[in-house]
Structures are given as structure tokens and as C-alpha cells.
Design goal:
By secondary structure, this protein is mainly alpha-helical. Helix content is 89%, strand content 0%. It is built from ten helices and no strands. Helix 7 packs parallel to helix 9.
């Protein structure tokens, strides 16, 4: 029973997290924060520091999106105290990236990359490597930037992640433009545009499929409702007919 109770609690906590993520993606930040906080409280009670840290980092990400950096820093500090995982370090890197502290951003991105590498999480490795490359470009360390961006692109291609491929192609285009290497800049710009178009097309196809599925489900539900109404109407008619028959029988008995 205790195991089942814990399992149910984990399920509820995960549901809160999934609802928060869905609201987060739609920029419905207040609802997202509310659900993240509920999930975080449950993960704390369940002694699940990794997931508690993840939801705290996600709340920080919302505050960064809203440019409320002091609030973001509060939740980032909590997240890292709870569990020193790769995701928490990556969000700390984002914080310093947003606030213009390149050296601190590089420090946290590097630690995050190393932790993701330990888990062989190649896509997140690509993201961290790409973020490092972007900062090195900004700092004018072009050779180092090129090395990181190319490694990030290779990892993204290996994972066949179109969105990340587009991001890294775009990073290389910006780097080569800074170096006045316009031939390479143009080639990577074209590749980035193609990847972005492909990603947008894939995303739109998925959304249309989801809408179609919802429409089909709604259509089936409407048909079921219609059939149910018809069935209820037939039952009502039958009940009325039976009542009339009973009334008729009673009337006949009274006449007798």
C-alpha cells in the first residue's frame, strides 16, 4: 500500500509537471508557475531532488523570459542547492548569458556540458557546445568559437535534430560574417534557413495532425451523443407506450 501510495504521488507530481510544461510552451506563465510549484512540493515530499531541481530551474527560466532576473536568480540558487545536475547548471549559464556576464556563462555551460557528456546526452551536449561557441564568437575568440560550433553541429546532425541543426548553422553563419568570410557565411545561412523551414513545416504538419485528430474525436463524440439521444428518445417512447398499455389495461379492469 505504501508503495502504491508513493507511485500515485509520483504520477500526480508528473501530471503537474506536464501541465506546467504545456502552459509554459503557450507562454501562460502564471499557470505554469503554479503547477511547477505544486510539482516541486510533491517532489520534495517524495525525496526526489533531481526532479525538484528541474521544476525550480523551469520557474527560473520563466522569470528570465519575463526579464525578472532577481526572481530568476532566487530559483536558480534553490535548484542548484537541491541537486547539482546538468540542467540546473545550463539554466545558470542562461542567466549569466542573458545578464551579459560571458565569463560566468562559459563557466556554467562548461560544467553543464561535462555533466551531459557523462550521461551521453548528445543533444544537450550540442546545445551547451553551441552556446559556448556563440559566446566565444561574441568575445572575438573565433578559432575557439568555430571549433565548438562545428562540434555542436556534428552532434545535432548525429541526433537528426532539425531545430538544433538550424541553430548551429546560424551560429556558424554569424561567426563567418564576423570574420568577413562571406562565402562560408552565405552557405551556412542557406543551410540554417533550409533547416528552419523544414522544422517549421514539420511542426505545422504535427499541429495539423493533432487538430485533425481532435476534430475526428469531436466528430465521433458528437455522433455518439446523437446516437445516445436517439436511444434515450426510443426508450422514452417505449416507456410511454408501456404506460399507455398499463393505463388501458387498468381501464379495462375497471370496466369489468
Amino acid at each position: 500500500k505504501l508503495h502504491q501510495k508513493k507511485h500515485d504521488s509520483i504520477y500526480v507530481a508528473d501530471c503537474y509537471t506536464n501541465m506546467a510544461i504545456a502552459l509554459h510552451k503557450q507562454n501562460l506563465f502564471d499557470g505554469a508557475i503554479t503547477n511547477y510549484l505544486k510539482a516541486g512540493e510533491m517532489y520534495y515530499t517524495l525525496k526526489s531532488p533531481y526532479y525538484e531541481s528541474i521544476v525550480l530551474s523551469s520557474i527560473a527560466d520563466i522569470y528570465m523570459h519575463k526579464k525578472q532576473y532577481p526572481e530568476a536568480l532566487v530559483y536558480l540558487s534553490k535548484a542548484l542547492r537541491v541537486d547539482k545536475n546538468a540542467t540546473a547548471y545550463s539554466f545558470f549559464g542562461d542567466y549569466y548569458n542573458h545578464t551579459g556576464n560571458d565569463d560566468s556563462a562559459l563557466y556554467y555551460y562548461t560544467i553543464s556540458y561535462q555533466k551531459f557528456a557523462t550521461d551521453s546526452d548528445r543533444l544537450d551536449m550540442a546545445r551547451m557546445m553551441g552556446d559556448i561557441g556563440e559566446i566565444e564568437t561574441r568575445k572575438g575568440n573565433y578559432a575557439t568559437a568555430e571549433e565548438h560550433l562545428k562540434q555542436a553541429l556534428a552532434l545535432a546532425r548525429r541526433e537528426a535534430d532539425i531545430e538544433e541543426i538550424g541553430n548551429r548553422e546560424n551560429g556558424l553563419a554569424g561567426l563567418y560574417a564576423q570574420e568577413n568570410d562571406f562565402k562560408n557565411a552565405y552557405e551556412h545561412h542557406v543551410a540554417a534557413t533550409q533547416a528552419r523551414d523544414s522544422f517549421n513545416k514539420t511542426t505545422m504538419t504535427a499541429k495539423l495532425a493533432e487538430l485533425g485528430k481532435r476534430f475526428d474525436v469531436k466528430e465521433v463524440e458528437e455522433k455518439n451523443k446523437s446516437l445516445q439521444k436517439e436511444n434515450d428518445l426510443q426508450k422514452l417512447k417505449l416507456q410511454r407506450k408501456n404506460i399507455l398499455i398499463e393505463i388501458g389495461r387498468a381501464s379495462c379492469r375497471e370496466r369489468v
